[in-house]
């Protein structure tokens, strides 16, 4: 009786686990119509050979595609699951990141972040933290900001920021919200005031995009 691919996959994984000369933790097994693909990493070439031999012992294996790589202990740990684990650990240690609200996917070193957070800075902090991990080739940040900004709240934050810095006048700054986007307009006296207004807008809850159209009137 011909084994199903799922049964064959189970048997190959069990054989690799049973073989004492193989550290099977980083070996992946996929089966398609009786063809077994071995992937992942081992710590030495003899383990690579032993994994192939162990797979050939399993009844029902028609062919083997052997893609296992040898990686020594001194090599950087850049397997997808290792990258994902380090990212999750970094999120857990960073108080600015709500790690329970963010999902992490890693495929060939490319990280995709998803989930819903309350603040833009949380999404940005997660993106920056993920990009710092060795082995990451890129980051797609699909994290959404849940709340919608309120124009009056953004305006209040801008005015408060101006008052903290030499009691500047934010009365000429215009704030318009459109969904999670904040549009800034009006006039300020210098580039520093423009920067203060933009940073204050980003700090408001629910802001996912800031369009800064403030004019600097020298």
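Q: What amino acid sequence fits the structure above?
A:
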């Amino acid at each position: 009786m011909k084994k199903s691919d799922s049964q064959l996959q189970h048997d190959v994984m069990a054989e690799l686990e049973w073989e004492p000369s193989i550290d099977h933790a980083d070996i992946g097994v996929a089966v398609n119509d009786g063809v077994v693909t071995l992937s992942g990493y081992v710590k030495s070439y003899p383990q690579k050979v032993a994994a192939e031999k162990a797979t050939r012992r399993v009844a029902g294996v028609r062919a083997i595609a052997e893609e296992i790589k040898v990686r020594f202990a001194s090599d950087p740990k850049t397997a997808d699951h290792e990258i994902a684990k380090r990212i999750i650990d970094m999120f857990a240690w960073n108080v600015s990141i709500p790690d329970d609200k963010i999902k992490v996917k890693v495929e060939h070193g490319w990280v995709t972040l998803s989930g819903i957070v309350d603040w833009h800075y949380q999404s940005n902090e997660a993106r920056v933290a993920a990009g710092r991990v060795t082995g990451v080739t890129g980051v797609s940040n699909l994290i959404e900001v849940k709340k919608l900004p309120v124009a009056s709240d953004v305006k209040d934050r801008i005015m408060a920021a101006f008052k903290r810095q030499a009691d500047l006048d934010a009365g000429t700054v215009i704030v318009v919200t459109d969904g999670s986007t904040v549009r800034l307009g009006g006039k300020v006296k210098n580039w520093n005031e423009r920067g203060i207004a933009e940073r204050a807008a980003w700090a408001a809850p629910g802001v996912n995009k800031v369009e800064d159209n403030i004019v600097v009137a020298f």
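Q: And what stands out in the fold?
A: The longest helix spans residues 5-18.
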